[in-house]
C-alpha cells in the first residue's frame, strides 16, 4: 500500500478532505452542523439526566467525541453523541453501585465510556463486526420498543412532581407511580404536557412538509426556550429547574475507578453491542443514500477512539443518534465537516450559554426524552412481522416482554440467545428437496414446488440446500435413510412394486463439507451398498470435490458415479437399470411415488392401501 492509502486507512477524513468542494459543500455542511448542534444542546442535557448525571456531562459527551469521530469515523453524515438507550443502560447499572448524587457515580460513567471505547476499538482492529450479523433485526426492534417504554416511564417523575423508584423493569416503575399519586402536582404536569405537545407537533410538521424541515430539529430548543422563559417570568416554586451549570470547556483528566471495572464489563459489552448496532446500521444506510462505501470495522474503530478520547474530557458513552443523523442528512450534510461544526456549536454553548441553562425546567428536558421514546416504539414493525413471519414476531415478542418485566440485561440476553437458537436450528436442520424432471426439459426442480415434475421409478434425486458439516450431517443422514426405508417398505405392495436402486445427491448448493460429513457419507454409502443401492454425486464445486477426493470418497463410490449435472446422472442410472431383471424405468403421465405421497400429505388422508407419508421439510 502507498503512503496515501495508509493515510486514508488510519484517517478516513482524508478521503473527503482531498475532494472537498468549498463552493459546493461548505454552505450545506455549515447549515447542517448548526442545525444538529441546536438540536443536540437540549437533547444532551436531557439524556444526561436520564443517565442519572448532571446535565453538563451530556454537553461534554456532545463535545469532545464529535471532533475525534470527525477525524477517525468513516461516515460523513452520522451524528454521534449521547443517546437514550445508552443513557438508560448507564443509569441501570450504575444505580446499583453508587447513588447519582455521589462523585463515584460520575467517575464510573466516564470509566464506562473508556471501556466501551476500548471494546469498540478492539472489535474494529480484529475485524469482528460480522459477529453482530447473528442478532436478528426483530430482536433489536423488540429491545428498542421495550426500552422506549421504560425510558418514558422513568421520566414521569418530572411530569408528576414526585420521585419514582429508579428501575429498568416496568412493574416496579408502575407500582412506584401509583404509590406516589397522592403527591401529584399540576404545574409540572401541565407545563411538561404542553412542551411535549409542542415538540411532537413540530416534529410532525417537519416530517410532513419539506419547507418546514427545520421545525423537526428546532422543536426541542423551542420547547426549552418557552419553558425557560415562563420560569424566568413567573418563578413557579413547584417546577424544578436544572440549576447551576459550570461554564467553559471540559478539563483533561484520566478516568478513575478502575477497581470497579470488573463489575462494569457486562454492561460495557451490552452498551458496545447496542452502540454498534445503532451506529453501523444508521451509517450504512446513510452511506448507501449518499453514494459512498463504508467500512464497518473502520466505523467501529472510529467510535472507539471517540469514546476513549471523550472519557479523558468527562464524557460518558456516545454513539450514533437516529434522530440527529436523519436531520443531518435531511439538512444536506455532505462531509464530516458538518459534525465538526456541530462540535463547535456545542463548544460555543459551553463557553457562552451555560448561565442561561440554569432556569430550564426539568419537565422540559423530560419532555424531550419522552418525545424520543415515543418515536422509538416500533409497533408497525410488530404488525409487519405478524403478517410476514411468525417466527420473527415470536422473537420480537420474547425480547420485548423479557426486557419489560425482567430488565434490560435479561431481555437482551434472552433475545440474543433466542435469535442464535433459531440460527442454529435452521443450520442443523437444513432444507432437503426431492427433485423431479420438468416435462419437455432436462431441468430438475423441487416436486413440492412443481407438482407437474415427474420422477423415475427406482431413482431418487435429492438436493441438500446447505453446507454439510458436523452440526447438520446427522439430520441429513437420517432423512436420506428414512426416505430409502419408507420406499423399501412399499416393495411388498403389489399396487406399487417400487424400489430404490439409485440415490442421486445434487451438491450444487453445498459450498462446504467437513470431515464429519465426509465420514457420514462413507457410512451411508456402506449402508446403501448392503441393500444394493448406489449413490451418485451431481455437480459438486471444486472445493467440495477436493475434500471428497482427499477423503477417498471418490474411489469408494466410484469415479463413474460423479456427474456434471443431474440429468447426466439420471441418464446413467436409467442405462444401468435397463439391465436389471424385473426393473423397467418408467416415465408417464400418472404420478410417481413421491407425487403420490405429496398428494396424500396435502389431502391428509391415511388408508391401509396407501404408502406411508414421505417426511418433507418444506
TrEMBL record:
<dbReference type="InterPro" id="IPR018045">
    <property type="entry name" value="S04_transporter_CS"/>
</dbReference>
<dbReference type="GO" id="GO:0016020">
    <property type="term" value="C:membrane"/>
</dbReference>
<feature type="transmembrane region" description="Helical">
    <location>
        <begin position="214"/>
        <end position="234"/>
    </location>
</feature>
<feature type="transmembrane region" description="Helical">
    <location>
        <begin position="337"/>
        <end position="357"/>
    </location>
</feature>
<feature type="transmembrane region" description="Helical">
    <location>
        <begin position="300"/>
        <end position="317"/>
    </location>
</feature>
<dbReference type="GO" id="GO:0008271">
    <property type="term" value="F:secondary active sulfate transmembrane transporter activity"/>
</dbReference>
<dbReference type="InterPro" id="IPR011547">
    <property type="entry name" value="SLC26A/SulP_dom"/>
</dbReference>
<keyword id="KW-0813">Transport</keyword>
<feature type="transmembrane region" description="Helical">
    <location>
        <begin position="79"/>
        <end position="98"/>
    </location>
</feature>
<feature type="transmembrane region" description="Helical">
    <location>
        <begin position="51"/>
        <end position="72"/>
    </location>
</feature>
<keyword id="KW-1133">Transmembrane helix</keyword>
<dbReference type="InterPro" id="IPR001902">
    <property type="entry name" value="SLC26A/SulP_fam"/>
</dbReference>
<feature type="transmembrane region" description="Helical">
    <location>
        <begin position="104"/>
        <end position="126"/>
    </location>
</feature>
<dbReference type="InterPro" id="IPR002645">
    <property type="entry name" value="STAS_dom"/>
</dbReference>
<dbReference type="InterPro" id="IPR036513">
    <property type="entry name" value="STAS_dom_sf"/>
</dbReference>
<feature type="domain" description="STAS">
    <location>
        <begin position="449"/>
        <end position="573"/>
    </location>
</feature>
<protein>
    <submittedName>
        <fullName>Sulfate transporter 4.1, chloroplastic</fullName>
    </submittedName>
</protein>
<feature type="transmembrane region" description="Helical">
    <location>
        <begin position="138"/>
        <end position="156"/>
    </location>
</feature>
<dbReference type="Pfam" id="PF01740">
    <property type="entry name" value="STAS"/>
</dbReference>
<feature type="transmembrane region" description="Helical">
    <location>
        <begin position="364"/>
        <end position="387"/>
    </location>
</feature>
<dbReference type="Pfam" id="PF00916">
    <property type="entry name" value="Sulfate_transp"/>
</dbReference>
<keyword id="KW-0472">Membrane</keyword>
<keyword id="KW-0812">Transmembrane</keyword>
<feature type="transmembrane region" description="Helical">
    <location>
        <begin position="176"/>
        <end position="202"/>
    </location>
</feature>
<feature type="transmembrane region" description="Helical">
    <location>
        <begin position="393"/>
        <end position="416"/>
    </location>
</feature>
Amino acid at each position: 500500500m502507498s503512503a496515501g492509502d495508509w493515510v486514508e486507512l488510519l484517517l478516513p477524513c482524508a478521503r473527503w478532505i482531498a475532494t472537498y468542494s468549498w463552493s459546493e459543500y461548505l454552505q450545506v455542511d455549515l447549515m447542517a452542523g448548526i442545525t444538529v448542534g441546536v438540536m443536540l444542546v437540549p437533547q444532551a442535557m436531557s439524556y444526561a439526566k436520564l443517565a442519572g448525571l448532571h446535565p453538563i456531562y451530556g454537553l461534554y459527551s456532545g463535545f469532545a467525541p464529535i471532533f475525534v469521530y470527525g477525524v477517525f469515523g468513516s461516515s460523513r453524515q452520522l451524528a454521534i453523541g449521547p443517546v437514550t438507550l445508552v443513557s438508560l443502560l448507564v443509569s441501570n447499572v450504575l444505580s446499583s453501585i453508587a447513588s447519582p448524587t455521589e462523585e463515584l457515580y460520575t467517575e464510573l460513567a466516564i470509566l464506562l465510556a473508556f471501556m466501551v471505547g476500548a471494546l469498540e476499538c478492539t472489535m474494529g482492529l480484529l475485524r469482528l463486526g460480522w459477529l453482530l450479523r447473528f442478532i436478528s433485526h426483530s430482536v433489536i426492534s423488540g429491545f428498542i420498543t421495550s426500552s422506549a417504554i421504560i425510558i418514558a416511564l422513568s421520566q414521569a417523575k418530572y411530569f408528576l412532581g414526585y420521585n419514582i423508584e429508579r428501575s429498568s423493569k416496568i412493574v416496579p416503575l408502575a407500582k412506584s407511580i401509583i404509590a406516589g399519586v397522592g403527591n401529584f402536582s399540576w404545574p409540572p404536569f401541565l407545563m411538561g404536557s404542553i412542551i411535549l405537545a409542542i415538540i411532537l407537533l413540530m416534529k410532525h410538521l417537519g416530517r410532513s412538509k419539506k419547507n418546514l424541515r427545520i421545525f423537526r430539529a428546532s422543536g426541542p430548543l423551542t420547547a426549552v426556550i418557552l419553558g425557560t422563559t415562563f420560569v424566568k417570568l413567573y418563578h413557579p416554586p413547584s417546577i424544578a429547574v436544572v440549576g447551576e451549570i459550570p461554564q467553559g470547556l471540559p478539563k483533561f483528566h484520566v478516568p478513575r475507578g478502575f477497581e470497579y471495572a470488573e463489575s462494569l464489563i457486562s454492561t460495557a459489552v451490552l452498551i458496545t453491542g447496542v452502540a454498534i448496532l445503532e451506529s453501523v446500521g444508521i451509517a450504512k444506510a446513510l452511506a448507501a443514500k449518499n453514494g459512498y462505501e463504508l467500512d464497518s470495522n473502520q466505523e467501529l474503530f472510529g467510535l472507539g477512539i471517540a469514546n476513549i478520547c471523550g472519557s479523558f474530557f468527562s464524557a460518558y458513552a456516545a454513539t450514533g443518534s437516529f434522530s440527529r443523523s436523519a436531520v443531518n442528512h435531511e439538512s444536506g450534510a455532505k462531509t464530516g465537516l458538518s459534525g465538526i461544526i456541530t462540535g463547535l456549536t456545542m463548544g460555543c454553548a459551553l463557553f457562552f450559554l451555560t448561565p442561561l441553562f440554569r432556569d430550564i425546567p426539568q419537565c422540559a428536558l423530560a419532555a424531550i426524552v419522552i418525545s424520543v421514546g415515543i418515536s422509538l416504539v416500533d409497533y408497525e414493525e410488530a404488525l409487519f412481522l405478524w403478517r410476514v413471519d411468525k417466527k420473527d414476531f415470536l422473537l420480537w415478542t420474547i425480547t420485548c416482554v423479557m426486557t419489560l418485566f425482567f430488565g434490560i440485561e435479561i431481555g437482551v440476553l434472552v433475545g440474543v440467545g433466542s435469535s442464535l437458537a433459531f440460527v442454529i436450528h435452521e443450520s442443523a436442520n437444513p432444507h432437503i428437496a426431492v427433485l423431479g424432471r420438468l416435462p419437455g426439459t432436462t431441468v430438475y426442480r423441487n416436486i413440492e414446488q412443481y407438482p407437474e415434475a415427474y420422477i423415475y421409478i427406482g431413482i431418487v434425486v435429492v438436493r441438500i440446500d446447505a453446507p454439510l458439516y458436523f452440526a447438520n450431517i446427522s439430520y441429513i443422514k437420517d432423512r436420506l435413510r428414512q426416505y430409502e426405508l419408507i420406499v423399501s417398505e412399499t416393495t411388498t405392495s403389489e399396487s406399487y412394486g417400487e424400489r430404490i436402486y439409485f440415490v442421486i445427491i445434487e451438491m450444487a448448493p453445498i459450498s462446504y463439507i467437513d470431515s464429519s460429513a465426509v465420514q457420514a457419507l462413507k457410512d451411508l454409502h456402506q449402508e446403501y451398498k448392503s441393500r444394493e443401492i448406489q449413490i451418485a454425486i451431481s455437480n459438486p464445486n471444486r472445493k467440495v470435490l477436493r475434500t471428497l477426493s482427499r477423503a477417498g470418497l471418490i474411489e469408494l463410490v466410484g469415479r463413474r458415479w460423479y456427474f456434471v449435472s443431474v440429468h447426466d446422472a439420471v441418464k446413467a442410472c436409467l442405462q444401468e437399470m435397463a439391465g436389471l431383471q424385473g426393473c423397467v424405468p418408467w416415465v408417464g403421465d400418472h404420478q410417481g411415488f413421491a407425487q403420490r405421497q405429496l398428494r396424500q400429505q396435502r389431502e391428509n388422508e391415511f388408508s391401509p392401501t396407501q404408502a406411508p407419508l414421505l417426511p418433507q421439510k418444506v
